[in-house]
Amino acid sequence: MSHCIGLLSIASKLNLLVLLLSSVCFCSCLSDRIPEFALTKTEESDLKEENGKESVAEDDLDPEDLEVFYPTHQWQIVRPDQCLLCLILQWRYNLMFATGYGLTEMTHIQHFDFTTRSHIIATEGQAVPSGLHVRLNLQTGEREAKLLDNKNEKSDMKDQKKRKRLDEMHINSNSFTSQELKEALAKMKEKEKTESTMEQKANLEDVRQRFRPIEELKKEFEKLNMKIETDFEVMVKLINKFNSSTSTLDEKVAALYDLEYYVHQVDNAKDFLSLGGLQLVINGLNSTEPVLKEHAAFVLGAALSSNPKVQVEAIEGGALQKLMVILATEQPLSVKKKALFALSSMLRHFPYAQLQFLKLGGLQVLRNLFKEKGMETLYIRVVTLLYDLIVEKMLLEDSENKEDQLEEKVQQYKQVNLVPAVVEQGWCVIISNLLALPEHDTREKVLKTVRVLMAACRDGYQGDYALSTTLSMLRTEYEELAAEEQREGDNDGYFKELLSSINTIIQELRPGYL
Which one, 53, 306, 362, 465, has the greatest CB density within 10 A? Predict the structure, then answer.
């Protein structure tokens, strides 16, 4: 028993001696390799350079080619002397990607291809990166290394892509000094500054091409401000151009065309009147040139619209007679269309003009338009004018507002016997015959006018067989259209309203209807 205890004591002493010898050898190995790192002197050299004293430290790595150890998440065998080389190569790779320095000045590195096996015996001269999980395999006696465990499965794919990029790199074995690193960084900064300057110049040139200097714009605005004219000043120039004997026909027409734009405004129309332009335009209705008549009537109609003061001056200036002459004589359709527009603007909301219109035989002049060929487009315009004049008077008489000014206007409208004149001159039949036209809009306006004239024209309508037939056909047509609208989800559609008007007229035309 004592013999066995002695043997164990001797074995333990031998193991302790071997451990001490291994520690000494390992420290000796480290002391031999540390001077090979250029990084150990970097900060000292940087401090010296800041004080104005530069010292160049040469980085003398092993000139022989090194084979890179590419780690994965599986264990691989590593040589014992690769732990320091991994730091050097990791620093060099970081430097290369961070500074963009020439690849030909980096160390030529041969890579070690990995497989899916867990244990691979590394060849001699293999370099191992830092940040690995290293272990000693007690079964084989070999050192093995792998990447730290990562739950993200995409890391292996990133490592493979990085390894493929590194496969194509063949770089020089010479190392970098601190001075070379500073020069590389200086070049990189200079390159960035140059590129930034060029980009700024390009942007500045683009801005100059697209935009003008503010000084030039200010000068132009000053010139524009000096040439700004009021509507009054513009109308003065246009009136002078129209009235000038030296102006050509085209110039006069252009002046009238521009004047029509300005006199739409009530205030401008009053200024137009004060400048004498209204009388010039009225005189232009006597021109022998149809185009001049057309535009003169157009300007007159625009100035008369809802402007009582201009309406009074126009009728005193003889505009009503001249417009009726144009409508009563042979003129182009475009001229009569503008003359009817001017006549409508004069008669609306102006009972005195309506009274003078009836006295001058205006209804007979409009009735004759229905006998002329090529005037079909004026039919509905005439019917609309009559409808507006009749409804205008009815609304005013039914109004509950009994102000003095309004009462005076009511007395003026009482002198205008428009409906009796319409019935006397046969307008009831003329209007009802227009229901045969195919346009729905035309039918709608005719139906409204028939309903307004129903009280005055009922006797004539009840004996009109053609009207009865037309109404029956229209009811059938619009019943189908209204039903189709209803199927589409429109319960209060356009055709349903027309059908309601037709049914109302048919109901009112039945004998005994009160």
Answer: 362
